[in-house]
């Protein structure tokens, strides 16, 4: 900046010296022409410079300066055909000044220019004041004033409606890392730059950006109807510079992959103070404040070594306030695609702090306040979560506490719960037993332990007890026919390892006046795309009357035992099992089957499974005694291998009648039955018959 | 009533109908050598509850994805997935939603290929099933949709 100035001063001195000579009595000079050849400074040179002065009258002269080519510092290109003319340079004993001059030139970057120029040169102090207006820059115009004294200098520039795409292209060409944008963004710029000798002392830049539409080449950065302003004060120091930055986003939408921001009212603001140490490629973020009204309010500081492999040396972010759902939708969701948290309804608030050190998260303290999350796919929900979560990247434990008012898992309601846990670098442990109400029962958790690590899958283990839960509530919650009974169990060892859940112990279901026990229960990816459940079940002493009443099937009296081995369900639908249900051999209860139940079994059979009922005189009976009944199905590959309570001629007995009349047998003939068809027919029967048969 | 395991795989994209008898050779030379040709065929129309569920969810999503296929914002990749081809063709406020849809679709497709391989009793065929599907998606797509060629360059059908 300053070296060129010295040359300019020299030329002006020379010109004004000549003017002085011209006005001295006895020198009747009309025209002075000087050919100065090439002038050079650091980073610039001017070729074929010539100056012509025309003496006008007392104290005035016309100035014409020509130069063929001016080579400017790299990013500024070159000027050709430069003509500086001032028709009336006023000359006094102390100064030479031009009130109205023109500078014509062709800039390799800015094109042809015709600039209004004024300047004043003070002989005694050497101070120059100059003004350029109407500089055409990227579709807009720029006005520059310069104040140059022997040691200090000041430049102010104000530009209107500069084209942002052109400006960014220019800055990128000058070696400044910026995304090149396309679109119709316009900049209004006001800059005030001061310096001493060759040293810049302060730059104060205000930029107003408006853009109807703006995008970088791949759409990773884009904006619509944007109106933002930026104020930066740059002060150079010994090793770099200090920058104070303020940004205000008033209007429009901004997309910085993957975050989409709509400017709020009151506006979004970002303030930062940082030191840039260029030699070390180090950015010291002394402080920053980010306010997105209605969404987040952050403060913090940090250090970045841009040359290092992990540039993030340290970052501390204090979350003064964060409001859901805006925080979730704007700042969290874009990072959660493909996870369980990808599609949530949220409300409430959160505050706390997050620290990173050497590229790694090192401290978390988050305090949810009335936070509610509800999975839109209906898998889980928690309502009114409060408490404090603490975690440090260290072996010492930090105590956390969480409580919620209610929740649900697969629409099964959970009641209010409160628990404390201790977390360290790679584990979480429940501090004391907790009881989570489940419908009208409860899940008691004696201990819970979770382990994780950088290259380890998530693992946890829990020991608990399921206190009786009403089946009627559970079945309604899961959208099943309403069942009467209770579910309970001791679950001494539930282990989750890398997506798979295994339940040790036995779950006991008291239902239909008998009981069902579940063993070897395991779940793969319960919240994943294709959940898979495996279990072995046994049913003992089920009361058929209660069962058939529940499913509106047509009354059957008697008891039933059974087993389902290797039940394998995917997406909550069975793909394989080996099941057998039959009247217990020693059952002494009353055995009756109603006409309606027989009809239903027959219609399910559709001529395949059953239908041995003679439609003649047996129609007069409301029900029939039976000896035994039963069914067997081995499901594999969508096909059920069928069997009954015992073999019959050409088939198998589903219901074997008593010898005493009226004798009725239901015989199945089909060995292999399509499972989906079978289920569809059973559903049709149970749905059609809404009237409960008593 | 009498069993015919597996109904036809209902194609997820309207134009991507896979013939019921569709089959492919396991693309592994060694495998071909050891297994007789009759055995080394995959039934792409195999049907299990998991496959049904994945297809239903993909079919549902397809209505949301179709406009973006048409504009060329998204396209089909060589490995049987979707990718954002030109996000500038997606309005700013929809950009993340489309990315979410693409991520979900790719998760479903990955799971579908895996489940089909598993239902065939050959989990190791997953890669071959994936590449067969990749070709099918493209060949059955309507004109104007974009796909990635072998060199990874986008092409319009």
List the helices and strands and how they pair.
The complex is a heterodimer of chains A (about 700) and B (about 160).
Chain A: H1 2-23, E1 31-41, E2 44-57, E3 60-71, E4 78-91, E5 95-107, E6 111-122, E7 128-137, E8 140-148, E9 152-163, H2 164-173, E10 181-183, E11 186-196, E12 199-216, E13 221-236, E14 240-256, E15 259-262, E16 268-277, E17 282-292, E18 296-305, E19 312-324, H3 326-332, E20 344-357, E21 360-375, E22 380-392, E23 398-404, E24 406-409, E25 412-414, E26 417-424, E27 427-430, E28 434-438, E29 441-453, E30 456-470, H4 471-477, E31 485-497, E32 500-503, E33 506-511, E34 514-524, E35 532-543, H5 544-550, E36 556-557, E37 559-570, E38 573-582, E39 592-594, H6 595-605, E40 623-636, E41 639-644, E42 646-648, E43 651-657, E44 666-668, E45 672-674, H7 675-688
Antiparallel strand pairs in A: 1-2, 2-3, 3-4, 4-5, 5-6, 6-7, 7-8, 8-9, 9-11, 10-12, 11-12, 12-13, 13-14, 14-15, 14-16, 16-17, 17-18, 18-19, 19-20, 20-21, 21-22, 22-23, 22-24, 23-26, 24-25, 26-27, 27-29, 28-29, 29-30, 30-31, 31-32, 31-33, 32-34, 33-34, 34-35, 35-37, 36-39, 37-38, 38-40, 39-40, ...
Helix pairs in contact in A: 6-7
Chain B: H1 29-34, H2 49-71, E1 74-76, E2 82-84, H3 95-119, H4 126-140, E3 146-148, E4 154-156
Parallel strand pairs in B: 1-3
Antiparallel strand pairs in B: 1-2, 3-4
Structure in words:
The complex is a heterodimer of chains A (694) and B (157). Chain A is mainly β. Among the domains of chain A are: 1-150, no CATH class; 390-476 and 483-511, no CATH class; 531-688, no CATH class. Chain A is built from seven helices and 45 strands. In chain A, α6 (595-605) runs antiparallel to α7. The termini of chain A are far apart. Mean pLDDT of chain A is 86; it is low at 1-5, 606-615 and 688-694. With 157 residues, chain B is of the alpha+beta class. Chain B has one domain (44-156). Helix content of chain B is 44%, strand content 8%. Chain B is built from four helices and four strands. Chain B has helices spanning 29-34, 49-71, 95-119, 126-140, and strands at residues 74-76, 82-84, 146-148, 154-156. Chain B has a four-stranded mixed beta sheet with strand order 2-1-3-4. In chain B, a hairpin with a 5-residue loop joins β1 and β2. Chain B is globular. Classes of the chains: A mainly beta (694), B alpha+beta (157).
